[in-house]
Amino acid sequence: MIRKAVLPVAGLGTRCLPASKAIPKEMMTVVDRPVIQWVVEEAIASGITEIILVTHSAKKAIEDHFDVHYELETELEKRGKTDALKALRELLPDSVRVISVRQGRALGLGHAILCAKAVVGDEPFAVLLPDVLVAAEKDQPQADLKQLCARYEGSGKAQILVDAVPTDQVDQYGIAELMQGCELARGEGIGLRSVIEKPSPALAPSNLAVVGRYVLPAEIFSYLEKTRPGAGNEIQLTDALDALLQSKGAEAYCMQGRTYDCGNKLGYLRATLAYARDHAELGDGFMRLLDEIQRPL
Ligand code: G1P
């Protein structure tokens, strides 16, 4: 059973400025809740009960968001605002704990994951990169993260969620080299030959990009400890994964859902539109608004 998930949230969010100057980019709102809450909900829906935030002193709002706000709850209670109170109290199920550790220096994603070593201990864990929202399609039988967890439990091998991207974008991602071929159907998994961080299109072994959801064995920490700075002069998770898979194996799994990259402005707008359209309470009203706004004001 995969119980723990590491969410690296220490990044400065330079691609979202000026919005992310005084609030963490993970606290930007998609419809009615911060991006980070959507990601935590995704983890919980896949059975995670321990959320480990790898954070930074400038990003306290994220920890506060998942903490109890006693004064606010008392005030809402006093004023009889039961719906708002219920929404606050249901933000995290009682069975879920949120723990935070600090990444004082921005040395890369691999270094961020290594900061969680003592809290993860000796068990497999999930990693969710909170820039990216992953939503299931309506007819999808199981969420992609849940699939990754089940596949790990079946094979004991590291699992990496991938999705096809346009060839001219491969240099923005970790790229998978498969054991056989260079294509993968949705919902299919296969052994990995290697992973390479942000290759040039000419050198990319496929267009299958690492989308930011992983299930990893605790052994990854010993590989991370040996990983030297790579692409962008940062300690890359992809490089540690590549070393791990050369001796222990790892698998790529092609996602069935959709990703929304909230780490850039247009991606964030796309996420907002899609999540508003699919929102249980606001969806219909939002679609009417969209219709209205296309007519001259
Ligand atoms: C990180 C990972 C990369 C992955 C990407 C997904 O890169 O290093 O392998 O494909 O997230 O969003 P970053 O976007 O932090 O540069």
How would you describe this structure to a colleague?
The structure is a single chain. By secondary structure, the protein is an alpha/beta fold. It has a single domain (4-294), classed as Spore Coat Polysaccharide Biosynthesis Protein SpsA, Chain A. Helices cover 34% and strands 23% of the residues. It has helices spanning 35-45, 60-65, 70-78, 82-89, 109-114, 117-120, 144-155, 220-226, 237-248, 265-277, 283-294, and strands at residues 4-8, 29-30, 33-34, 50-55, 97-102, 125-128, 132-135, 158-164, 174-178, 189-197, 208-216, 250-254, 258-261. The protein has a nine-stranded mixed sheet with strand order 5-4-1-6-11-8-12-10-9. Strands 2-3 form a two-stranded antiparallel ribbon. It is globular. The termini are far apart. The structure holds 1-O-phosphono-alpha-D-glucopyranose. 1-O-phosphono-alpha-D-glucopyranose binds next to strand 11 and helix 9.
SSE arrangement:
Blueprint: E1 4-8, E2 29-30, E3 33-34, H1 35-45, E4 50-55, H2 60-65, H3 70-78, H4 82-89, E5 97-102, H5 109-114, H6 117-120, E6 125-128, E7 132-135, H7 144-155, E8 158-164, E9 174-178, E10 189-197, E11 208-216, H8 220-226, H9 237-248, E12 250-254, E13 258-261, H10 265-277, H11 283-294
Parallel strand pairs: 1-4, 1-6, 4-5, 8-12
Antiparallel strand pairs: 2-3, 6-11, 7-13, 8-11, 9-10, 10-12
Helix pairs in contact: 8-9
The structure holds 1-O-phosphono-alpha-D-glucopyranose (G1P).
Q: Given the structure, what is the number of helices? A: 11
Count of strand segments: 13
CATH class category: Alpha Beta
Bound ions, cofactors and other small molecules, one mention each: 1-O-phosphono-alpha-D-glucopyranose
* Class based on secondary structure composition and strand pairing: alpha/beta
> What's the order of the H and E elements?
EEEHEHHHEHHEEHEEEEHHEEHH
Low-confidence stretches: none
The CATH topology corresponds to: Spore Coat Polysaccharide Biosynthesis Protein SpsA, Chain A
Question: Given the C-alpha coordinates, what overall shape results?
Answer: globular
Distance between the termini: 54 Å
Radius of gyration: 20 Å
Q: What would the average pLDDT be, to the nearest integer?
A: 94
Strand content: 15-25%
Q: Share of helix among residues? A: 25-40%
What is the domain tally?
Answer: 1
Let me know the CATH homologous superfamily: Spore Coat Polysaccharide Biosynthesis Protein SpsA, Chain A
Main sheet: strands, sense, barrel: 9 strands, mixed
Give the second-level CATH assignment, the architecture. Alpha-Beta Complex
Biggest sheet: strands side by side, in what order? 5-4-1-6-11-8-12-10-9
